[in-house]
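Final report, closing paragraph on structural work. Over the funding period we assembled a curated collection of sequence-structure pairs, and we close with a single example.
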Amino acid sequence: MPISFTRENSLFRLTTKNTLYAFDIVKGKLIHRYYGKKAGAVVKTFADEPGDVWSFAPYAKEGEVYFSLDTQPLEYSCFGSGDFRTTALRIKNGAGNSVTGFDYVSHKIRKGRVEIPNIPCGRADERTQTLDITLRDTASGCELHLYYTVFYDCDVISRYASVTNKSGGDVVIEKWMSLALDLPGHNYDVVSLAGAHCFERVFNERTPVFRGNLSMCSRRGASSHQMNPFMAVCDRKADENHGDVYGFNFVYSGSFLNEVEGDQTGKTRVQVGLGEENFNYRLKDGETVFAPEAVMTYSAKGFGPMSRNFHHFTNDHIVPEKAKERRPVVLNSWEAFYFDIDENIMVDFAAAAAECGMDMVIMDDGWFGARVNDKAGLGDWYVNRNRFKEGLAPYVERVKNTGVKFGIWVEPEMANPDSDLFRAHPEWCIRCPERPMSYSRSQYVLDMANPEVIEYLKGMFEETFRGVPIDYFKWDMNRHISEPGSMYLGAEDQGSMEYRYMQGVYSLFKWFRETYPDAMIENCSGGGGRYDLAMMAVCSQIWTSDNTNARTRTLIQYSSMLAYPASVMSCHVSNPHGNMHELDLKYKVAVNGVLGYEFNVLKTPEEVKEEIRRQVREYRTFDRVITDGEYYRLSSPYESDVSAYYFELGDQILLSAIHTNGKAVIGRKKPCTKLAVRTADANATYRDTRTGMTVTGEQLKKGIEIGEFAPDESGWDAKLWHFVKE
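Its predicted structure, as stored:
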């Protein structure tokens, strides 16, 4: 069984295919004992026996100087109860103080999982079990449930929590983390995926753990381009195939906090959750609230297995089942026309897309309201009759008659100041009384915590899209939250606005999926600004970055795959301009994920169209290898002159090598001349479908020579092999 409890020593054991997680109950507290290899021994891995006393460490009773919460490896730490390290939960009680302390009451082992209301979480399967532990704080009158859900085959354990107020009055949750883990030692590095708009998720920094607190967070109301919720804690010599690596992530799309702290006793505390700066929740008597789900995995063999664990978890338990159907190759209108679209241009665009073998045309921004630039019209979700005289339904029928499916761009969470919506309901935007409203990208953020706003949007979209056969929505979100306040919520509830905002967003996503069950949703937030597990749970895929330059995308896509699978990564070939080398490079970079295109096909030379037709045909021979296969990194563009990786599915291997002009991003150039496909069948023969070359599996395992690149003037080139076992 994945979860067991031994009453004699009060020991909980949570097992996955390759890992073991264990903790016990001591003096009513949950004490962490072990997380690592399944074969590891569960012992008291930290000093907590008589003779080990730390000065100034508080203890509960006289004579119990050997048991202090300040030195114990805790499963979940509470503020003000004697643990001076960063804490997971702080609740202000009716007496006005924030001292928080929960003790074990009981537990249940549940089949499946406990669902989190109005927030996405991992789907259970037949092997999923959940440990539900009840704890109580008699002083605050609150009940805490800690949930541990085991996803056995993925080597993933998730952590989440709920608090129920039974005090008879209001309490306030001032800080809340979903996951807390105390690890032995300080000899770790922390890896995160920080970045910026158009340069998201950079995997080129390792920060040593030190005695102090390292925090990585978003305060933007979105998981953000600037800091992704993923992080890893690894031993300092860990690499792709060696060393201990602990991976963490958060199934949430709003502001978050990741913390890593080295303490005085030589332990390292890791926490993931909502934090405190952008979260403050008044909990009424009798009310229950849930923290979002955080997930963790462990690898004893480096970053590679950690990534594959998270890829399996995302594909098997996060991505909607319908999204696992074959993804369409799309042509998006944005970089072709920007706002300058109308019915006739888009029908011609669709016909040209069909001629190139593509599956779908996406009509991006510019189809609604007064939206002829980015200054007006957001929030007015009715068709622009100057551009689409008969409305959407006849136009979409014309598009589909060309032989392609139809997708459309929306940005439900935003409004321009110059819009009918804002003029009628300025109070529906996020704002604080007596404070000016900041502009960003010429728009404001709608208050999705307000049910009236959600109902307005449902009504507008339902009316506009009635009778329109839409196959795909591109859902954008193009600014972050400033002046976080809600005219709908009372003064006592303002601190929970961002949390309620995300609940409103998820509810609207749910409505879209239920109202248009056959339509895909691609998430976008200025590109990859909400590239997180919760968005992957409500969408089919995510626009990886607004930056479609192949050279930058090589770095962004390589880093994204550290935590997220290729199946969710939307990758477009953009603006080839007739340069065949550039077109080839962009294609070989884009097949790292879900292939699409983004350029004006109406002004494209015939030789480019013919090459695109060939690319699409070829992609269809191995697209399932990319979306469904196992992914292995071979050479990092941050450390080498080559970015190299491969996907493997059954008898197929797709191997890529991208020459990056000979300069490693972080300055440690390591020439790469051989690519070793370690998982190849040594007794088989493989044929490359692109060249007809044959090679033995033994040769692949030892490493094949990359050969000479033919870089352009920028020093970039790419190679691709599609090996099929004969």
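The chain has a mean pLDDT of 95. The radius of gyration is 27 Å. We thank the funder for supporting this effort.
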